[in-house]
Automatic annotation (TrEMBL):
InterPro entries: Glyco_trans_1, GS/SS, Starch_synth_cat_dom. ADP-alpha-D-glucose binds at residue 15. It is an enzyme of class 2 (transferase). It catalyses: [(1->4)-alpha-D-glucosyl](n) + ADP-alpha-D-glucose = [(1->4)-alpha-D-glucosyl](n+1) + ADP + H(+). SUPFAM superfamilies: UDP-Glycosyltransferase/glycogen phosphorylase. Residues 2-236 form the Starch synthase catalytic domain. This is Glycogen synthase.
Amino acid sequence: MNILSVASEVFPLIKTGGLADVAGALPLALAPLGIAMRTILPGYPSVLAQLKDAHKIADLPDLLGAPASILKARHAGLDLYVIDCATFYDRPGGPYAGPDGRDHDDNWRRFAALAKAASEIANGADPSWRPDIVHAHDWQAALTPVYLKYSPAGATTPSMLTIHNIAFQGQFAPTVFGGLQLPPEAFAVDGIEYYGDVGFLKGGCRTAWQLTTVSPTYAEELLDPQFGMGLEGLIAERVSELAGIVNGIDDKIWDPENDALIAAPFNAGNLKRRGENRKALVKAFGLEDNGGPLFCVISRLTWQKGIDMIARAADFIAAHGGMLAVLGNGDPGLEYSLTSAAERHPGRISVRIGYDEPLSHLMQAGADAILIPSRFEPCGLTQLYGLRYGCIPVVARTGGLNDTIIDANGAALAAKAATGVQFSPVNAHGFMQALRRTFRLFADQKTWLQIQKAAMKSDVTWAASATQYSSHYQKLLARVP
């Protein structure tokens, strides 16, 4: 079975969040099941610089108004198609925003071009390979099933759209429609029209043969106006074609026994060595260790992630003998709240603004608990890394956090099944209660060790999820006329 994956970022080439991890790990997880997945992504400068032996397989002289070509390459075990289009992608900044942090004004065209190029691959642009199914990820790739629907050659190609976070929808003014090279009938309720605007994710949700999202609980939440972000009605119409599949992680990259990025390797049978990572983490953040729990945060610093709750709880953590190490960036107001807390509590709270992949590994290996009080969380990956490294997740009871963490309640502790701490309602009071429980659990080191060992035994790999994707792919193929 041949699958074309369409994504705006793919680890290890380019990453801003969990989407890249999924897009990079899923092809490798599917390969043992006999599924050959190739991934198409934009040719950002940093991506092109990493490719070796890339060669052109197609010219696209008018890719939404710009000349482009499609390169074929292999990198880190991944088979890739890369869109070489300097007009759209050769610019400073990240994949979505310039150096000033503002979104590129032409993002609508840049990511419509990704979808359009993917449809060209589906329609035979590479004479040596053609996908049986096209699998698009999030709003940046969501026009792919739209282009397939309105393409005579691609209308019978099955498509899947995975919603990683419905809060980001790719909604643009109607004036962009003329630049999309779609027929007039596509700007309609059963196409990409969305309250008078152009809706990329809405169009993908309407036209893809199958919808998936990244956890069973989030699939249910998408039907609720609180979480559906205006698309809950459309999702409800297609609920019979919606599936929630929890993400996995690459257990070769995230492996405490063989992680070169941490101070000391360890496993569930030798947790004493974990203490060396704690010492290294304390030193890296300039903290003063008095033996209390060391909490960490590795996150975008946004309201969605509940970072305001963490900022409010910082004084409580410090006053009760805990330490807090934060790595991330985002909302300037939340950054200020956290750095102010660090100034109030030197040696107890420390904040690094930015992202550092090696440091994130050390944080998982050395911290006692990771705080994830997200107001909504489609799946989440940091709690899975926490489980793998015995860094106990303290999480809101929502989305994938609900599906992957077993709360340390009395029954779960008695059964030695607890892997973390969940809290509900998802508000500041609920979070404070979770912190109090965590302090009590940490004070009982025998119980804490039991939770750590259960966490590290959790199956956080892609194996089960890859099998589920394979099953859905097979069902899609069965629907081909």
